[in-house]
Amino acid sequence: MPGVDVWAQVAARRLQIADWTTSLDPPATDAPSWCDGWRVRDVLGHLVHLAEANQRTMVRDIITQGPKPDRALARVATELGQRPVDELTDRLKAAAPGRFHVLGTPAAVALGEVLVHGSDMMRAVGANDAVDPSVVVPVLGVYRRVGRIAFPGAPAANMSLVATDIPLRLG
Fold first, then answer.
1. Residues whose CB falls within 8 Å of the CB of residue 120, separated by 6 or more in sequence, listed in order
2. How open is the CA angle 73-33-69, to the nearest 5 degrees?
3. How confident is the model at residue 47 (pLDDT cuts 50, 70, 90)?
4. Burial of 47 by CB count in 10 Å (0-12 exposed, 13-18 middle, 19+ buried)?
5. How far apart are the first and last CA of the chain?
6. Which of 32, 51, 63, 145 lies deepest, with the highest CB count within 10 Å?
7. Which residues 6+ apart lie within 8 Å of 8 measured at CB?
8. Cβ neighbours of 169 (radius 10 Å)
9. What is the mean pLDDT of the chain?
10. Does residue 170 have a pLDDT over 90?
11. Strands annotated E in the chain
């Protein structure tokens, strides 16, 4: 969507998440997130992993952690989730400008990761996650196109998505 600098939004969201996470107490970081089987700190570890990644390191991690990408990413996330939260927030801040995304996918996929997982963390502890709806627009179009492949249970192709907070209709 014109007017949205996706990589600037990715970096800004990473910084926002890092700053927000520093305000959490240990019980909150150990709380179950909205990502099945992950605590808030594990989701933070996942975001750190993606921010620090490049194509070479991601291939290495998938090879060393198992051939199924989802399981490999989960293992890395939970391993990183064992690190001190202060370390993870510092690493996320340092890697905020990172531009990793899966080859062949648009940058909006990386934006979707930080938007969705930020919400997974915040909602788990009852925090308000006020995201500007216009920032979400580039992600919606990409998720609509790749949803049935990448996200089981995604809306069917014959459905329309209609926003209630901005003028947007997909499908």
1. 33, 34, 35, 38, 43
2. 15
3. very high
4. buried
5. 16
6. 51
7. none
8. 8
9. 88
10. no
11. 161-162, 169-170
Query: DSSP assignment of 126-160, as one string?
Result: T------HHHHHHHHHHHHHHHHHHSTTPPPTT--
Both structure tokens of 161: 């998505």
Side-chain half-sphere CA neighbours of 65 within 13 A:
18
Q: What is the dihedral of CA 37, 127, 98, 106, to 10 degrees?
A: 80
Asked if the model's pLDDT at residue 67 lies above 90, the reply is no
Residue 100's φ and ψ, nearest 5 degrees, are -70, 135
Report helix, strand or coil for 74: helix
Distance CA 94, CA 96 (A): 6
Q: Where residue 153 falls among pLDDT bands split at 50, 70, 90?
A: low
pLDDT in tens, 104-114: 888 999 999 99
Decide: helix, strand or coil at residue 161: strand
Residue 15 φ/ψ, nearest 5 degrees: -65, -40
pTM (2 d.p.): 0.88
